[in-house]
Structures are given as C-alpha cells and as structure tokens.
Amino acid sequence: MNFFQFQDPWYLSLLLVLPLLAWWSGRMGPEAAMRFSNTQLVKAISNSRRSRPGRLLFGLRLLALAALVTAVARPQMGRMNESTDAEGIDIVVTLDLSGSMQALDLSTRENIVTRLDAAKKVVRDFISKREYDRIGIVAFASEAYVVSPLTLNHDWLKKNLERLELGEIDGTGTAIGTALGASVNRLRDHESRSRIVVLLTDGENNAGTISPIGAAEAAKTYGVKVYTIATGKKGRVPVPETDRQGRILRDREDNPIYRGRTMQSNYNETELTEIAQMTGGRFFRATEDGDLERVYDEIDALETTTIELRSYASFTELFVWPASLGLLLILIEQLLSNTRFRRLP
C-alpha cells in the first residue's frame, strides 16, 4: 500500500507567513524612483505602489519560498510492507472410501447427500481455514493410497479432494490400520511443531495387514497425534442405487437416487477411542446433519497455528523536487530583475 507524508510537517506552518508578506509588501512597497515635472503624466499609476513587473518578481519570490518550505518539511512517498512468519502444522486428512460411505443417513429433506459428500464438504472448508499449514490426503477402503502429499498448495489439494468418488478403489473392505500407517508414514520425517492425523471412517477394520492399534503405537512413537471421527448411525441405514462398479447413480440435479435400499452399518467406537487416547488426540462421533461441521471446527480450534505478522514501511525522499523548483524560481527572479525587469536607480 502506497501513501504520502511529510517527515517534518510542522515546517509547513511557515507557509501561513507568506500571505502576510504579500499583504505587507502591497501596503508598504517602495516609492517611485523617478521624478516627473507634470504629475498628470503619472496620475493613472499614482495610487499603485508596485508595478506589474514588481508584482511578478515578488510573486516568484513567494513561490520560491513556498517550494523551499515544502522541501524543508521533507515530503516522502511511503510503501507499507507486511511479512508473515507462520509456524504451521502438518496435517494428514484420512478419508474412508469404503462402500458404506454411500449411506444417506446424514441427509436432510432439503439436501440429500452421502456420507462421503458430507465429509468432502467439511474437509474442503477445513482446508480453507488452515492457510499456513501443510496438508495431505490419504484415502482408503480395502487398501490405502496417498491422494496428495503434504502441500501448501491448497487449491490443488481441493481439486484432488473433489475427484474422490466411491467405486474408484475396492470398497468391499475397511483397512483402518493400513490407512493410519500410511498417514503416519507421510508425517514421520517432518519436524514441524505439531503433526496430526484426522481419520474419518464409518466402519470396522476388516482388511489390510496392519492393526489399528499397531498403527496407533507407531503414531505415538513418532509424536503424531490422531483425531478419530466415526460418522453415520449404527444399524440399518438408507443407501442409493449404484452401478456395477459401485458408483452412485444420480439424477439430473446430481442428487443420489434412492429407491428404498438399506444396508447394515457399524463401527468400533472402543477401538477408535483407544487410538485417539494413545496418541494424545480425541475421538468424535458425527451421526446427524451438522455434526461433521462441529467436529472439524472443534479440531480447528484445538490445533492452532502460530502466526507472526510484521509490518514495516520504506520511504522515497521527494524533497529534491520542491527544492529544485524553489532554486529555479529564485534563478528566474534574479535573471528577470537584472535583465528585462531591471529597476532604474
């Protein structure tokens, strides 16, 4: 941001003297320097103490003084600069893409969404709030894979998040331990102030070669804190129609098509709680519309980023311009007073 200022503005008060000088000079100007034998010859100018050349020269002096006073006040063009020092947090968002994430139990009458739709929305908002943190994404079902490594390019991160769809990987299992191990692996070599995993699932661990508790022990060893979130209701839940690849069928308004199908849903709350407690995190449950927003807001409040904003200004001195103008006007006044407007004795 650019701005203009005077370093010593009190010098500008001297400008108030210049109108008084002009008035005093007009009242007390010198008498005519020539004598005439007949006063009728100069009657027209007898009431004026200063001639036009005199007024011009005096005006140049006043302008020169104004310019020099302005220069003494040190006009400056400034630019305000800001720098940000942020001690960010490394975060891996771990999302369940198993088939049960198609359930519609987080929907409302106005907004029909799958569990994955609801999760993607709150994760996108969570990413937007963490401007100074490096964030990565790990997705899992029967296997786990890295959607994005840790990055500060959050726009690119959101684009990768939006591409996540059910049916892209084998959704017949839920490998929580494998997913947590992959997430910890992305964080273990980083030395940030805080490293966390936010793991969201709606199922029990029934796939993979790593147990969830074993992965939690590894997280504890590397100083990685794990927040676990169980989403959806237990029991029979409504599910939409899908194609042969397990992709959700949607209508023209992009709403999931529901025709009365249900499926059994369950998660191991005890295990998810133990994972969180072992690593210093917390366990959350999100079973209703709006619960996920509340949970991610609470995690956002718990894991704060240290930010230091520093502001400083740089200045360009401009006094040379009014000073040069003042000296130029004095030079012109002296040239005119000694040449064209030279006064006769």
End-to-end Cα distance: 58 Å
**What is the count of DSSP helices, taking H or I runs of 4+ residues?**
9
> Segments where pLDDT lies below 50 for 5+ residues?
none
Order of helices and strands: EHHEEHEEHHEHEEEHEHEH
Please give the share of residues in helix: 25-40%
Task: Give the overall pLDDT as a whole number.
Answer: 85
Overall 3D form: elongated
Main-sheet strand order equals 5-4-3-6-7-10
* Cα radius of gyration in angstroms: 40 Å
Decide which structural class fits the backbone.
alpha/beta
Q: Total number of β-strand segments?
A: 11
Q: Mind summarizing the main beta sheet? A: 6 strands, mixed
The oligomeric status of these chains comes to single chain
> Which band does the percent of strand residues land in?
15-25%
Give a topology summary.
Layout: E1 2-6, H1 17-27, H2 52-72, E2 75-87, E3 90-96, H3 115-129, E4 134-140, E5 144-151, H4 154-162, H5 176-187, E6 195-201, H6 212-221, E7 225-231, E8 235-238, E9 262-265, H7 269-279, E10 283-286, H8 291-302, E11 306-317, H9 320-337
Parallel strand pairs: 3-4, 3-6, 6-7, 7-10
Antiparallel strand pairs: 1-2, 2-11, 4-5, 8-9
